[in-house]
């Protein structure tokens, strides 16, 4: 999990970085390399994006609240004043990097978040877990990969490469799956092979979120106890705006 944030490039600190022990100024290794070569990038002044506030209900598809002061400044959006400057900041002749905040500590030291033996301990734990929970290794060869048995094992031809054993893909039907098919699926999935499961819709309840299906269902709504709203409002997610739709009836 990332720990902290780099002041210059705003990236997350994962493991190795340079840090000031006095003021906790952090610098990633890429920024250190760029600073030593005199080509440090990043660290630009913060950019504040201002937009008119039209009320909390408008953010969720409601109407514009005209009583809200749309020009009121947001204190949280104000840029943070940086306490250090890149002007004249450079590495020393011995490649050491001074702290730009000019604190009493002086230089940035190389530090590690995860610790010196983290990778070694992680490998030992992973090997121990693999030995404890050792799963059954499937057969090295699957009968369905043979072209002459593709029809019986639910295979679909996906390529016509010469001298290749992976021209067919495992394609089971969702309505005919059995317990043994799970192991068959795991065999292909462990090899990194794609699996096509067909007839999935036949196992559903018949509901559909397709726009045309929902539109047709709304037009066929004949509940007289409820008012039929033919003019509805929707959010255009691509244009970030509110639009009006008319569900006319025949």
UniProtKB/TrEMBL annotation:
Superkingdom classification of source: Eukaryota
Gene Ontology molecular functions: chromatin DNA binding; histone H3K9 demethylase activity; metal ion binding; transcription coregulator activity
Record's GO cellular component terms: chromatin; histone deacetylase complex
GO terms classed as biological process: regulation of transcription by RNA polymerase II
Main location: nucleus
Subcellular location: Nucleus
Keywords: Metal-binding, Nucleus
PANTHER family named among the record's database cross-references: JMJC DOMAIN-CONTAINING HISTONE DEMETHYLATION PROTEIN, LYSINE-SPECIFIC DEMETHYLASE JMJ25
Family, per entry: Belongs to the JARID1 histone demethylase family.
Protein name stated in the entry: Lysine-specific demethylase JMJ25
Organism from which the protein derives: Vigna mungo (Black gram)
